[in-house]
Every structure is written in C-alpha cells, then in structure tokens.
Design brief:
The complex is a heterodimer of chains A (348) and B (56). Chain A has 2 domains: 7-80 and 259-335, 3-Layer(aba) Sandwich (Rossmann fold), CATH 3.40.50; 86-251, Rossmann fold, CATH 3.40.50. In chain A, 29% of the residues lie in helices and 19% in strands. Chain A has helices spanning 28-35, 45-48, 65-72, 96-112, 146-158, 177-183, 192-206, 239-247, 279-284, 318-330, and strands spanning 7-10, 40-43, 60-62, 77-79, 86-90, 117-122, 129-133, 139-143, 163-169, 210-215, 251-253, 260-261, 268-272, 290-294, 313-315. In chain A, helix 4 crosses helix 8 and helix 5 (146-158) crosses helix 7. In chain A, 52% of the residues are buried. In chain B, a hairpin with a 4-residue loop joins strand 2 and strand 3. Chain B has one helix at residues 16-27; strands at 3-11, 32-42, 47-55. Chain B has one domain. Chain B has a 3-stranded antiparallel β-sheet with strand order 1-3-2, covered by helices on one side. The chains are: A alpha/beta (348), B alpha+beta (56). At the A-B interface, strand 8, helix 5, helix 7 and helix 9 of A face strand 1, helix 1, strand 2 and strand 3 of B.
C-alpha cells in the first residue's frame, strides 16, 4: 500500500497588513520551512513573490488566489506541469523606458533561469488602475479598462500561451504616508488589493495560472527601509518572482485522477488567526482538513475563525504550526506532547 | 465591464459552509464576485460584514 502524500495549504491574504507576509515576500521562509515537512504545499503569489527574490521548491504549488478559492471549494483541481508557456501582458500606461526594463527582466529570466516566456503584448488601451482603501483598512483597487486587459489575454492564449504574467502601471505615491509606512515595515500594502483584483479577473475569465507585478517608478534611496520590505528596493521591476512562480504553476482541471490534487486531499490549512473570513478558509472548514490559526501573524482584521463556527488549532507562531504539522503527519496527537492532556470524553 | 467595491451585511450562520453560501447568494445581484472577505463580526447582532469586489 502506498502512503498518502501529506499536503498542506498556506494562506496569507494580501492587502490586509499581515505582519508576516504583508510586505515583500516576507512569508517565503515560512513556506520554505513548511515545504520541508509536506509532500506538497499549495500557496499563492503573495507568499512567494519577493520582487527580484524568489525560491522555487519542487513541491510548492504557486496558485493564484481566485483559483485557490475555487480549489478550496472543490470546483477546480490542480494538475502538475513540467513547464508552462508564459505570456506577458504589459499595460499601455507604462512609460517606454519602464517597458524596456520589464522586457530586459524577462529576457534575463529566460536566459539565466531558462523560464519559458514565449511572447509579450502591450494592451490596446491604458488600463488605468486606481488604488483604494476600504473602511476595514484593507486595500483594493479598480481597473479602468478591464476589456483591454482581457483582449490582450485572449490574443496570447490563442497563440498557445497557458500562463499569464501581467504588469500594470500603478500610480506613484512616493510622498504618501501609506508608502512610507510600508517601506518601514508597518501598515497595509496599498498595492496588494488591486493586484489581486487584476489577477483574479484573468483567472476567472481564462482558468489558467496568472500573477501580477506592478510597474512603478524607482523610489529615492531610504537608508532605513525595513528588512521585511527590502526585496522591493533591489531592481527596476517586481517581475522575476512572478515569472519563476508561473514556470511550474499547476494548471486547473476538472479531471479527478492519480495525477491531480483536490481540496479533499489537503491534510492541513494554515491561516492567520485574525483573518478567518476568506472564502477558501470557510470551504476547508467543511472538509476533513486540520486548520491551524497562527496568532503571531497580526493583520488589520479581527475575524477569529471560531466566531464563524470554524474548528481550529490555535498556535502562537509558525514555528509552533510546523510542530503541529509534524505530529499530525506522524499520527500523534499534538497535545500529547504537553504536560497536561484532558481525559477522554464520555458520550453516555 | 466595470469593477465595483461593495459591502453587505449577512446573518451569522452556525455552519461556515452555510455562511459562505449565504454570502455568495447575497453578492450575486451586485455582479460577478472577484474577491470577498468577512471584515467584521457583530456577535451581539449575529451579523457579519462582507467587503467584496465585483464586476458588472
């Protein structure tokens, strides 16, 4: 009999000011550590993207947030690939010099890393992305010309592309307090919510892997930038991590067979303890999935999963979450490692 | 097609899956959801607040 692979999902939503994972790829070490104790770890671009920094693990699946919600709801499965054919969409709003910076970054990952980015397209109209903050303190945004974005996606897909990287021009707000806070490792990523809207739209319409990188003017040097945000100070684009993530991102499938992974196969879900109100989280609570809520990962939200009827194991840190996962995988009650354990319950 | 931000108030349910279903039903008249999350829970009124981005 073959042992069932141990599979986990790590979710840290973007644009909610997560103290770990709310900045520039700063939850990547969590994912790397978690991947050491799983056969498969499914996580999303907000966790894996560190602008010019990235880390490709063979057992980490890079799944865009909209697709992750569909996966959690049991509507889509994941199918591994050897290598995707990536197409790059560039927003017509991006200045010529910045376009060339992105094309050079793309050629660099094609040549130095062997990533298969096949072609690019510039949208036929400026996409006019605008950033917004909600009353809850989370970020979101609007796309002025979504049809132009979808037309660009359609053209690439009709030429055989099966994964989309998209770069849109985001407003420069170098004087804003929100950017100042973000660079210093506090507050909410003002771009994250709008990035999610863009990639969610493409995934919803085309059902293929997708991730987004914002195009921004370089910022002046700030010698006190937080280590959590420093990855975004390294170059002219945030694109390399997106292309690396998409290279082997699983495709979405409706087939159920030995090669596909479905929500019912997931052993553990790990989420921030203050952000239990996402679609994927609610979906997993209806399955036989162990849910671990990490208290150390603070966000601007205060949605304890228990208030929504979810049964979770609360831990203080990701280090503790790793321990709970190890015991789970080994078939050991995690509370048996504590000095006190409750007596068995009676049903009489 | 246009993108819109909306908020909605929904009755808290005992079952999280039922809550998800109620949220999705409540959002449908506003458009096709792209992203949503519960951003507030009022225990005394047994209501949750949802923020969502939809397309129309």
């Amino acid at each position: 009999m073959t042992q069932k692979p141990y599979s986990a999902v790590l979710i840290i939503p973007t644009g909610i000011g997560a103290s770990i994972g709310g900045y520039a790829g700063d939850a990547l070490p969590v994912a790397k550590a978690m991947a050491q104790i799983c056969d498969r770890l499914i996580t999303h671009p907000n966790v894996m993207n560190g602008a010019s920094l990235y880390w490709q693990c063979p057992n980490i699946d890079y799944v865009e947030g909209y697709a992750l919600d569909k996966f959690a709801g049991g509507e889509w499965g994941l199918e591994s690939v050897t290598q995707n054919k990536i197409g790059l969409i560039l927003d017509k709003s991006i200045e010529t010099e910045l376009i060339y910076r992105h094309l050079q970054a793309t050629d660099a990952v094609r040549t130095t890393l062997g990533i298969n980015v096949q072609e690019y397209i510039i949208t036929d109209e400026p996409l006019n992305v605008e950033l917004r903050m909600a009353e809850s303190g989370t970020s979101w945004g609007t796309i002025g010309n979504p049809e132009s974005l979808l037309r660009a996606g359609e053209k690439l897909i009709s030429n055989g592309i099966n994964a989309l990287a998209v770069v849109t021009r985001f407003p420069d707000d170098s004087d804003s307090q929100a950017l100042e806070d973000y660079r210093h490792g506090s507050g909410v990523d003002a771009l994250g919510g709008a990035e999610a809207v863009i990639s969610h739209l493409l995934v919803r319409e085309f059902q293929i892997p997708c991730a987004h990188a914002p195009a921004l003017s370089p910022l002046p040097l700030d010698v006190s930038v937080s280590p959590r945000s420093a990855a975004e100070e390294l170059g002219y684009t945030f694109l390399p991590c997106v292309l690396v993530g998409l290279n082997k991102a699983p495709q979405f499938t409706l087939n159920q067979n030995y090669h596909t992974l479905w929500a019912k196969d997931i052993d553990t879900l790990v989420i921030p303890a203050s952000a239990g109100g996402g679609s994927g989280m609610l979906s997993f609570s209806g399955l036989n999935t162990q849910i671990i809520a990490v208290e150390d990962n603070k966000t601007v939200l205060n949605i304890p999963p228990e208030l929504l009827g979810m049964k979770v194991i609360r831990v203080k840190s990701y280090l503790e979450a790793l321990g709970v996962m190890v015991t789970h995988r080994a078939g050991i009650r995690y509370d048996a490692l504590n000095s006190s354990i409750k007596s068995i319950k009676s049903r009489n | 097609m246009t993108t819109h931000f909306i908020t909605a108030e929904i009755d808290l349910q005992e079952n999280p899956l039922k809550l998800k279903q109620e949220i999705e039903e409540k959002l449908t008249p506003y458009g096709k959801p792209l992203r949503w999350a519960i951003t507030d829970v009022d225990e005394s009124k047994q209501k949750v607040k949802v923020e969502a981005i939809v397309t129309k």
